[in-house]
């Protein structure tokens, strides 16, 4: 976000009207990022279903992101090629839609947007619903180009704990933060010096849209998550 006014990059979000008008364009791939049960409840016409909405590598017990070959194969199976404009959405306040958006960016595909408000907005605006499985475009080629700048390594995060110009933002649940819920991890709790603000606090719980830039800025400022800091989230 900018210091004042709107979002610094409003082009990363898209509204339902645009998706309805352009979702069937030849270079556009709309991706439903919910689980299969969600997709089967009805979906945006022409949208494809991501097979793993966390894009985790099965070979590492789903700890790490898919490797380049796995991710490329998944994208090609969805009809996503190097020239595709990808629109992601879900019914969970953009949690998994944003996850897929990030995974695409990690592998060098920056031509992606999140449907602000997701499925809830689509339904609330009375737009058309499909129950048919889409047929992804065949023969597309996705060439992953890993961008390490969007991923922080453990050593970097450890060093950031002692940096005056850094803020560690723990976006997890209260239980994970205070150690009462380990989520199966060997150790519970949080990083020394981290601030806690669960991710959904920047979302409108009723509409599933992002809160206004002014609201988000106020929420972040109160936690010391400010533009002058290097922000490390986990």
Q: Could you characterize the architecture of this molecule?
A:
With 234 residues, this protein is α/β, with parallel strands linked by helices. It folds into two domains: 10-148, Oxidized Rhodanese, domain 1, CATH 3.40.250.10; 152-233, Oxidized Rhodanese, domain 1 (3-Layer(aba) Sandwich). Helices cover 27% and strands 12% of the residues. It contains eight helices and eight strands; from the N terminus they run βαβαβαβαβααβαβαβ. The strands form two sheets. A five-stranded parallel β-sheet has the order 1-5-4-2-3. The chain has a three-stranded parallel β-sheet with strand order 7-6-8, with no helix packed on it. β4, α4 (95-106) and β5 form a beta-alpha-beta unit. The radius of gyration is 18 Å and the shape is globular. It starts with 12 loop residues before the first strand and ends with a strand.
Key words describing this protein structure:
single chain, 234 residues, Oxidized Rhodanese, domain 1, five-stranded parallel β-sheet
Outline of the structure:
The protein has 234 residues and is α/β, with parallel strands linked by helices. It folds into two domains: 139 residues, 3-Layer(aba) Sandwich (Oxidized Rhodanese, domain 1), CATH 3.40.250.10; 82 residues, Oxidized Rhodanese, domain 1.
